[in-house]
Amino acid sequence: MVIDKFYLKDRVAVVTGGNQGIGFEIAKAMAEAGALVIVGDISEESLEIKTLRNSGRKIDYVFLDVRDSKNIDQVSKKIFDTYGHIDILANIAGIVVNTPLLETTDEEWEEVINVNLNGVFRCSRSFGKYMAKDKKGCIINMASMSGIVVNTPQPQASYNASKAGVILLTKSMASELAPFGIRVNAIAPGYVATPLTKKGMSNKEWSERWLNMTPMKRVAEPEEIAPLALFLASDASSFMTGSVVIIDGGYTIW
Ligand SMILES: NC(=O)c1ccc[n+]([C@@H]2O[C@H](COP(=O)([O-])OP(=O)(O)OC[C@H]3O[C@@H](n4cnc5c(N)ncnc54)[C@H](O)[C@@H]3O)[C@@H](O)[C@H]2O)c1
């Protein structure tokens, strides 16, 4: 049955930045679809993850800093040694800095690129090696509509540049990793109600502009992004690679 293609039974999935926000909803959706999910995050294991595990879902937490190759390599080896395969990597960890371009420090610029872009590269390289051994795997990168259009009115050049980088990195990875049976796709959401956008949502000038520029006149809930990640992680998207799927309430159509 076609619906069976959406299930992730017996898959091992790693979700970076899965402690909260969109990453948490993606981890939850994958666990509900039958995967064994390992959330890798720099913040302490969240109550939401603990609650899911206590309700019987196969979900675990590991400290993972996407800025640290050594830490990533230790984590990927441990997961592979424990379970014998790594099937799905969702690169979701991300940060934003809203400093005007002319006032942006080197440290701010480098930190955003380091987490959002270099982190995707580092984790994909590390986990991808195990997928390549098995000649199968699936990588989902978190881009943003900010990698396609410049959002306004908030200044966020470093964020926009990092997400544009994620988009071409996704296509480059899709091209290089197809011979190893690894599919690589990206998700490009519009505004989503998470801790990342909380400050912006509470700024009337910003939030009014955001809603006015979105045909659907609202922001998304993080659980509205998770089904797309599930689709991209599953056999339901078996012929998709190198795609960047926009999910933005229509923001980028105007
Ligand atoms: N919220 C939005 O409107 C929106 C829109 C488009 C894209 N995105 C992207 O979606 C992703 C998730 O965003 P969110 O809104 O859920 O954010 P969030 O702030 O709610 O969650 C981000 C998570 O990433 C983790 N993280 C941060 N730095 C890390 C690091 N160095 N290593 C490992 N984990 C780290 C945090 O601890 C947190 O759990 C980000 O990549 C973001 O850029 C968000």
What does this structure look like?
It is built from 8 helices and 7 strands. α1 (21-32) packs across α8 and α4 packs parallel to α5. It is globular. It is of the alpha/beta class. The protein has helices spanning 21-32, 47-54, 69-83, 106-134, 157-177, 195-201, 204-212, 226-233; strands spanning 12-16, 36-41, 59-63, 88-91, 137-142, 182-189, 244-247. The chain has a 7-stranded parallel beta sheet with strand order 3-2-1-4-5-6-7, sandwiched between helices. It has a single domain, classed as Rossmann fold. Nicotinamide-adenine-dinucleotide is lined by residues 16-17, 19-23, 41-43, 64-67, 92-95, 115, 142, 144, 189, 191-192, 194-197.
Short description:
The chain has 254 residues and is an alpha/beta fold.
Gyration radius, rounded: 17 Å
> Low-confidence parts lasting 5 or more residues at pLDDT below 50?
none
Number of domains: 1
Work out the helix count: 8
Sheet of most strands: 7 strands, parallel
Annotated CATH architecture: 3-Layer(aba) Sandwich
How do the strands of the widest beta sheet line up side by side?
3-2-1-4-5-6-7
Q: What general outline do the C-alpha atoms trace?
A: globular
> Which small-molecule species are bound to the chains here?
nicotinamide-adenine-dinucleotide
What is the CATH homology-level superfamily? NAD(P)-binding Rossmann-like Domain
- Helix coverage percent of residues? 40-55%
The separation of the N and C termini measures 38 Å
- CATH fold node name: Rossmann fold
Assembly form of the protein: single chain
Order of helices and strands: EHEHEHEHEHEHHHE
Secondary-structure-based class equals alpha/beta
What top-tier CATH class fits best?
Answer: Alpha Beta
